[in-house]
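$ ./design --mode recover --in tokens.txt
reading tokens...
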């Protein structure tokens, strides 16, 4: 049943069904619906016309508008239905109301210490500009007195998390896109159950769609029975736009308000290489922070919790007061991105870093399917002499997405960007490192889903020790990855020059 549901919710499958409906409608016109064709076709074309007008009037990226207008015109009858299904038109009213209701808590609780921003400005005005952007548009302050540890793989990240969970005394917050039963989650759950009995408050959020194929039905109720407060985020309802958009793609762990985790690592066995669904090795990345900046994650989690349950609470009891400051000379700024506003925070963080780069910018991403602004920024950086390197998987998790990613290689390589494919298997990390000075590690892929339609998060860092570990990991990863050449692209001509460009027309749907 789960496999059937997984197949049924696949975007390519749904798009294919819409195409079949388009053809079938014309057949029915000939054989059966002659008397009803005109009014039905009029209504469907009216929906498509309305969709095009809606696109023109929206403030979306023009490339995204065009990407939608093309399939609407190609499928004039069912194109409008396709847009309603995938176009992020209808936003969940309760979610939007919940977010608006909790925004005041963000403003009240996340206040910038002026001395920190002033000192950062004195050290590096360019980095301070990035931090001001996040402060003004994501409402998250930048902090000092915070240490950061980078984990280049899921296993050591998980092992350290287990050790930290064991030490929890007051509360544990967990938020995941994918939560799957297995060795990884079972070990965490065992600690959580024990901590609940010790009087520790435990809250869990998992995305209903992200986990629907790997968790029992009503798993949130099973957790509640164990004493773990639990939310299945944005429950599946019979409207595709609500199912496939507005997902909670974040991965956050907060322990006592003192320690925080994020990164690409979900709570399932492939993330620690206990299973190998895609190649010999699943490479992922995580970041552990300890110090003042954890407060950003605490507030982010509480906002998601309260907007989901449509309640309000006082956040202050969950703030940790540090008597001893973690040893760190750098700056850390956890941030969030929401599909319910009109600000592409995740993409703009990347664009600002690419524009800031003077020597190099290194990127990990499992998918490379984004808008023209991002491709132009990457190419311009390479053309002005910046060493731009991007690592993508050599083994795909989704074939159509893989072909679409590869179709973008040639244009970038011709501009001087170096593309690598991770030979051991699938790379799921979402990391950007620039000039030994700034980096971000988080949940934001270089694709439309992450940049436009999901709740996301990350950690922006300046001159913290974690950057050295990230650079070392990236250099080691380049060494075991395949450098893609123009000759390679020519050999893959059918996929990269024929299938890929066709898929680009539908990239916002994938």
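writing sequence...
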């Amino acid at each position: 049943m789960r496999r059937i549901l997984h197949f049924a919710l696949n975007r390519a499958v749904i798009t294919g069904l819409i195409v079949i409906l388009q053809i079938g409608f014309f057949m029915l016109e000939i054989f059966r619906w002659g008397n009803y064709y005109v009014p039905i076709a009029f209504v469907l074309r009216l929906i498509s016309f309305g969709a095009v007008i809606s696109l023109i009037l929206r403030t979306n990226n023009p490339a995204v508008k065009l990407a939608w207008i093309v399939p609407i015109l190609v499928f004039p009858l069912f194109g409008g239905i396709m847009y309603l299904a995938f176009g992020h038109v209808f936003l969940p009213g309760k979610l939007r109301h919940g977010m608006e209701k909790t925004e005041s808590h963000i403003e009240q609780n996340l206040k910038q210490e002026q001395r920190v921003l002033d000192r950062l400005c004195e050290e590096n005005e360019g980095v301070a500009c990035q931090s001001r952007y996040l402060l003004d548009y994501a409402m998250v302050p930048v902090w000092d007195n915070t240490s950061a540890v980078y984990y280049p793989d899921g296993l050591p990240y998980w092992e350290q998390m287990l050790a930290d969970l064991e030490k929890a005394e007051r509360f544990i917050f967990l938020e995941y896109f994918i939560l799957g039963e297995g060795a990884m989650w079972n070990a965490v759950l065992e600690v959580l159950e024990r901590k609940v009995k010790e009087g520790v408050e435990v809250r869990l959020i998992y995305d209903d769609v992200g986990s629907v194929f790997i968790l029992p039905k009503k798993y949130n109720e099973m957790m509640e029975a164990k004493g773990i407060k639990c939310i299945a985020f944005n429950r599946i309802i019979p409207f595709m736009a609500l199912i496939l958009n507005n997902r909670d793609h974040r991965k956050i762990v907060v322990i006592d308000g003192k320690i925080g985790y994020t990164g690409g690592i979900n709570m399932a066995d492939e993330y620690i290489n206990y299973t190998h669904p895609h190649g010999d090795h699943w490479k992922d990345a995580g970041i552990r922070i300890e110090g003042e900046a954890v407060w950003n994650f605490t507030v982010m989690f509480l906002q998601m919790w309260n907007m989901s349950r449509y309640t309000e609470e006082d956040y202050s009891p969950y703030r940790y007061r540090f008597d001893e400051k973690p040893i760190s000379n750098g700056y850390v700024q956890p941030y969030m991105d929401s599909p319910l506003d009109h600000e592409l925070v995740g993409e703009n963080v990347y664009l600002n870093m690419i524009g800031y780069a003077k020597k190099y910018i290194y990127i990990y991403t499992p998918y490379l399917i984004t808008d023209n602004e991002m491709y132009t920024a990457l190419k311009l950086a390479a053309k002005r002499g910046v060493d731009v390197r991007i690592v993508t998987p050599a083994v795909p998790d989704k074939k159509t997405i893989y072909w679409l990613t590869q179709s973008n290689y040639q244009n970038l390589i011709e501009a001087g960007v170096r593309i690598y494919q991770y030979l051991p298997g699938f790379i799921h990390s979402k990391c950007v490192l620039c000039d030994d000075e700034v980096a971000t590690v988080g949940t934001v892929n270089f694709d439309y889903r992450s940049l436009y339609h999901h709740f996301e998060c990350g950690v922006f860092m300046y001159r913290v020790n974690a950057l050295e570990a990230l650079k070392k990991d990236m250099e080691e990863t380049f060494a075991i990855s395949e450098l893609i050449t123009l000759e390679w692209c020519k050999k893959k001509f059918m996929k990269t020059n024929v299938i890929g460009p066709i898929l680009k027309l539908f990239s916002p749907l994938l």
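exit 0
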